[in-house]
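BUG: 3D viewer hangs when loading the predicted structure for this chain

Environment: internal workstation, default settings.
Expected: structure renders.
Actual: progress bar stalls at 90%.

Input used:
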Amino acid sequence: MAEHTVKAFDNEITQLRGLIAEMGGLAEVAIRDAITALVRHDEVLANTVVLADTRLDALEAEVDRLAVRIIALRAPMADDLRDVIAALKISGVIERIGDYSKNIAKRVGQIERLKKFEPLTLIPAMADIAQGMVRDVLNAYGARDAELAVEVIERDEKLDNFYDSIFRNLVAHMMENPATISSAAQLLFITRNIERIGDHATNVAEMVYYAATGQYHAGREPGRRDEQDS
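Structure tokens produced before the viewer hung:
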């Protein structure tokens, strides 16, 4: 009976990790497709991103149910409990990453086709960094890789610097070209969403670090950045 219980618990943890991996994969696709839709001014693809977000919401609910079931029936302790709690929190953060991608996609139709618009050419490079952070932090979660989690945390500064540069570029462009203010303002919101995706990937990295080591990274509690979320 004890062996059966342990096997059942292992299967449930594997299932939980599988759900998180699926959510992470969908979030990566959402980021990629939202930026592709922006660059190509493809409103059909943008709408696909918006509609696909419901799957992320459903998976988050499934993670919640499974995590609660595991805690209630298995009473996990120590490392096992950290795994379950981390999955519960991470699913919520990934869902928020999906929301930011959806927000980007929703703005595609509000942006005019702008030729030779430097900020628009910089945004995909910024998004590549954010997408890479999401991909790597999910790999760190799957492998319980604390070192990779730290690398993701450190990469957030590069993303922030990118955001600051594009922000200044956009503001200057609006001042010099008043006719583009409406579209440039939408791009400001988009770059902010990309920056927040990076912040949330960093949140996940902090949770992964805690789950793997039992210690908070740099003395900071995981998820602290969520308190600053708008």
